[in-house]
Amino acid sequence: MRALRVVGLHEDGKSLVLEDPASRTRFLLPADERLRAAARGDIARLGQIEIELESQMRPREIQARIRAGESVDQVASSAGVSAQRVERFAYPVLLERSRTAELAQSAHPVREDGPDVQTLGEVIAYAFGVRGNDYSQAQWDAWRGDDGKWVVVLRWKAGRSDNRAHWSFSPGAHGGTVHALDENAEVLLNPNAYRAPRTVRALEPARDSVVQPTLDAAEEVPAIEGPGDPEDDDTREIPRVPGDDDAAEETPAKPKKNHPIVPSWEDVLLGVRTQRG
User: I need a surface site. Which of 90, 151, 243, 267 has the fewest CB within 10 A?
Assistant: First the structure.
């Protein structure tokens, strides 16, 4: 790199005349804002001028878009410059947003009868505890809306779902106030509106219905017989018919059927099970 020396101001009054001492070649350098910032050693101003030259988006517009909720990457993509150059102007605005979100947690939710005694952060922490969510993993942020008022947002994950809740924040005495802007914000401010999900129990396999009769057919309770009634049909006397005596003697007796033993009425009342032969 060759070193040039300053000859003086050009006759137009807007440029400097430089000269190469070795070749005596002269150069014309515009005396613009960029040169003046370099002469002062103002690096921040040089970066700002560089963005202004490379992009149609001015630094004030970049900061306005960051303040409105856009990220550094979104603004850099819109401006057509690197994220590092946008961060130079976004950093103070990001600090402002973070500070506002922190202040909003100390504000008081406005209810039907006035501001709550508890702060927004206390109410949300309790609501997360009731739901079993990890409050330490939730993220707070804030930005300024089109109406000039600050909007506070809370982001958290529940299972596989990403959730958001928004409040409008009005700074003021004793921490200021917040108003719910959507359904999630209203539900978080009202823990009584939360209903724990019912536990789904696994269906047990249907048990085979086993019918266990108290008495078998052979153990059915006999009807109560009146006094003088015979207890067994086999013991009843069969009237004899004249002339059938011989036939009755020659005819072998039929084997007695294997009738089940019928328990006596006393056994039934006492619960004694008759032994079968």
Answer: 243
99: region left, alpha or beta (phi > 0 left; psi from -120 to 50 alpha): alpha
Tell me how far apart the terminal alpha carbons of the chain are, to the nearest angstrom: 126
- Helices and strands per DSSP (H, E), number in the chain: 9, 9
C-alpha span between 17 and 30 (Å, rounded): 9
Report the C-alpha gap between 70 and 90 in whole angstroms.
10
- Residues of the chain below pLDDT 70: 49-56, 191-277
How far apart, in whole angstroms, are the C-alpha atoms of residue 48 and residue 68?
20
Q: Which residues pair with 167 in a beta bridge?
A: 152, 180
- If you compute the radius of gyration of the chain from its CA atoms, what whole number of angstroms results? 51
Tell how far CA 256 is from the center of its chain: 81
Query: pLDDT per residue over 127-183, tens digit each?
Result: 998 888 899 999 999 999 988 999 999 999 988 889 999 999 999 988 999 999 999
105 phi/psi in degrees, rounded to 5: -65, -20
Question: From CA 182, how far away is CA 165, in angstroms rounded?
Answer: 7
Say how far apart CA 80 and CA 225 lie, in whole Å: 111
Q: Are 93 and 66 in contact (CB under 8 A)?
A: yes
Contact 143, 67 (CB under 8 A): yes
Give pTM, 2 decimals.
0.53
- In sequence order, the 6+-apart residues with CB closer than 8 A to the CB of 83 are 72, 73, 76
Backbone angles phi, psi at 179, to 5 degrees: -125, 140
CA distance 245 to 255: 19
Give me 95's structure tokens. 């600090």
